[in-house]
């Protein structure tokens, strides 16, 4: 099953907006092409269901491949509020959705 991270999912409700941390912005993380993230551990935000305690949840993703400007990987932690996801699920997102990178 494939899920798309919050970034690029259309118009966001103001309560769903999660600002990019200053450190990520200053480092220009989101400006890198998708292939730069290959085999890295990245942090991204995922939309939570409407009845969740939070609008979005930050989770780590172990990148397995990059193709056509998208990053694909497996969740590296168990979601708490994004209950439609599970540890190990394959997810796909754009580089603009990456908030942190760990080699």
List keywords for this structure.
103 residues, mainly beta, six-stranded mixed beta sheet, 6 strands, globular, disordered N terminus
Overview of this protein structure:
- By secondary structure, this protein is mainly beta.
- It has one helix at residues 22-27, and strands spanning 2-4, 41-47, 56-67, 70-75, 90-93, 98-102.
Produce a short descriptive summary.
With 103 residues, the chain is mainly beta. It is 6% helix and 36% strand.
Structural class: mainly beta
Largest sheet: 6 strands, mixed
**What level of helicity do the residues show?**
under 10%
What separation lies between the terminal Cα atoms? Answer: 26 Å
Shape, principal axes of CA atoms? globular
Q: What is the mean predicted local confidence, pLDDT? A: 76
| Total strands | 6
Strand order of the largest sheet: 1-5-4-3-2-6
Strand content: 35-45%
Which sequence of SSEs, written as H and E, runs from N to C? EHEEEEE
Number of helices: 1
**Low-pLDDT runs:** 1-19
Radius of gyration: 13 Å
How many structural domains are formed by the residues? 1
Topology diagram in text:
Layout: E1 2-4, H1 22-27, E2 41-47, E3 56-67, E4 70-75, E5 90-93, E6 98-102
Parallel strand pairs: 1-5
Antiparallel strand pairs: 2-3, 2-6, 3-4, 4-5
């Amino acid at each position: 099953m494939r899920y798309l991270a919050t970034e690029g999912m259309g118009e966001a409700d103001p309560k769903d907006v999660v600002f990019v941390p200053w450190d990520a912005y200053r480092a220009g993380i989101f400006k890198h092409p998708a292939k730069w993230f290959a085999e890295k551990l990245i942090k991204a935000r995922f939309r939570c269901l409407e009845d969740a305690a939070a609008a979005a949840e930050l989770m780590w993703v172990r990148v397995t491949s990059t193709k056509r400007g998208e990053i694909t990987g497996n969740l590296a932690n168990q979601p708490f509020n994004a209950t439609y996801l599970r540890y190990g699920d394959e997810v796909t997102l754009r580089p603009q959705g990456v908030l942190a990178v760990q080699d």
